[in-house]
Amino acid sequence: MEKYRDYALEDFVSDKDFVDWARFPTDTSSAKWEQFIAGCPEKKLLIEQAALIVRSLEPVEAEISKDRLDTVWLRIAKSRKSTQWQLPSRLMKYAAIFILAFLMGLGGAYLVQEKDSNYTEIYTEINVPYGERSEIVLYDGTRVWLNSGTTFRFPLVFKSDQRQVFIRGEGFFDIAADRKKPFIVNAQQMNIEVTGTRFNICAYPDDPKYFATLEEGRILATNTLTGEKLNMKPGDHAILDLGTQAISTQPVNTKLYTSWKENMLRFENAEFAEVVKKMERWYDVKITVDASLNFNKRYNMTVKTESLREMLRLLAFTTPMSYEINEDQVFIKRP
Fold first, then answer.
1. pLDDT tens sequence across 88-117
2. Rounded-to-integer distance, Cα 22 and Cα 27, Å
3. Hey, which residues does 230 pair with through a beta bridge?
4. Rounded (5°) CA angle 236-297-209
């Protein structure tokens, strides 16, 4: 293991023994690398970054042409042209491949550098378009499902004392347990802190309320507007009203708020405006409702494989309305 003391990032990524361990760790190989890190702690962050890069290569083609990588970097540069940042040249190839893995399956991603007192963090941001949903696995094994219209930002490698990510939109988190390193989901006006659990958070910037729904374990929900904290137990549903700045909890059927990750949209006692808002995100359309319409009806339904037209037809059966579809525009008016 002595040779690894002088390794740079690209050396680790191209080393067969290291790659084998990063992709297919065994008790023996993991013990060997843990012993090396204990004796050479200054290499810990480098090894974590290299391992993440190796694992990120798996979803993409084994050989990627220079033109393909140049195209990826061009897309990244265009998306971040207003921000000045520089990635070390030796990281360019591997970072581009890492980003390519996301660009192939998600709406988009880019790298950002943020200076920390200890080291420079490299962040990845994912944007999920309306009408789509995505699933990713973070470096620590945490699984995250992202709903339509969501922006999710996370570091390539977590800090030594905490795991913090940022979300605007909706996500379901299955957190890898680590009591020594709490996981913090920052949704601006609401923060969620856990060490290992399953929960959903819905925090779209244009919504008047944010929601957190706990399926398993325990979470600490913080209203960042007032500093108020709530300890939640399974089945609790936290509601943060951005207008009044009040936060409260109530028991719910969690499936109503988490089934979207199974490609099911559920409504229970939902107002028409809520149904319309979720339909817009689910089908990636803009719905305009005639201002003279005033529906007081509450809706209970489950949407699985229904198309937009089928969904509108279903609403028209129970609601005095007609509709018109013009490409990605929907107009709801009087019958």
1. 444 444 444 444 444 433 433 344 444 444
2. 12
3. 221
4. 40
